[in-house]
Amino acid sequence: MLVCDGCGRALPCEAARRHPRCPPCQRLRRHSATARPEAAGREPGAHGWRLPGAPAADTGNGEELYECPICSLTCTNLQFLEEHVDLHLEEHSFSEGGNMRDLELAQQLQYEEDKQQRLEEEKREKEEFKKLQRQYGLDSSGGYKQQFLKNMEREVDRGRMQPFEYHKRKADMMESLAVGIDDGKTKTSGVIEALCKYYQNENKDVRRVWLSAGVDHFHSSLGDKGWGCGYRNFQMLLSSLLQNSLYNDCLRDTALIPSIPKIQSMIEDAWKEGFDPHGASHFNNRLRGSKAWIGACEIYSLLTSLRIKCQIIDFHKPTGPAGTHPRLFEWILRYYSTDNEGATKVVCTSRPPIYLQHQGHSRTVVGIEEKKNKTLCLLLFDPGCPSQEMQKLLKQSTDGTGLKLLRRFVGGLKEKQYQIVAVDGILTLEEKTARCHASRVLTSEKIP
Question: CB neighbours of 396 closer than 8 A, spacing ≥ 6?
Answer without folding.
Answer: 194, 197, 198
